[in-house]
Amino acid sequence: MNSPNEPLPTCDEVLLCAPQTTAEQVGLFLRRCLIPCNRGEKIYTMLYADELSYDVSRRVEELFQHLRHYSSSYRLVILCSCEREHSYIPSAFSQYKVHMTPQRPLAEIQQYLQHHYRVAQPSSSAASVFKSNMCVGIVSSKRAGVGK
């Protein structure tokens, strides 16, 4: 958010982890992040890394330890839930842990995201469904099972 006109991360910079995520998928991601090449100033991010299975997490740590010797200038952020801080990945990388709280007010964050997720020229796209021609929307309900 310090550079409002910078683009949001691309799909090669973010890995959304789930219990089904394989070691091969994470390995490819780590190689993009840790092996030096002309990748510019990208910041690679693993989301929900705490949800990886034990076997995958163990292999991820081993691969990270092996690959990090290729470059000392990598930019990797691993985001985990504080509710699962005792799972493998948060424990293995605990020496790098930084507790983070948003530094900007919610309204400013929302405005930043609206700038990046607004469809420039609305046409017959799904963006017309969401408020202000946004290409992303969150639908929620306080009641369960209402088809949302």
Query: How many individual domains?
Result: 2
Percent strand: 5-15%
Q: Total number of helical segments?
A: 4
Helix-strand sequence? EHEHEHH
Arrangement of strands in the largest sheet: 1-2-3
Q: What spatial form do the alpha-carbon principal axes imply?
A: globular
Major sheet characteristics: 3 strands, parallel
Low-confidence stretches: none
Mean pLDDT rating:
81
> Total number of β-strand segments?
3
Level of helix content?
25-40%
Class from helix and strand fractions: alpha/beta
Over the alpha carbons, how many angstroms does the gyration radius reach?
A: 18 Å
- Cα(first) to Cα(last) distance is 30 Å
Secondary structure layout:
Layout (H helix, E strand, L loop, with lengths): L13 E3 L6 H12 L9 E4 L6 H14 L8 E4 L8 H5 L13 H12 L31
Helix pairs in contact: 1-2
Keywords: Ligase
GO cellular component, one term: membrane
InterPro entries: RNF213 (IPR031248)
Tell me briefly what this model is:
One of its GO terms (biological process) is ubiquitin-dependent protein catabolic process. This protein has helices spanning 23-34, 54-67, 88-92, 106-117, and strands spanning 14-16, 44-47, 76-79. By secondary structure, the chain is α/β, with parallel strands linked by helices.
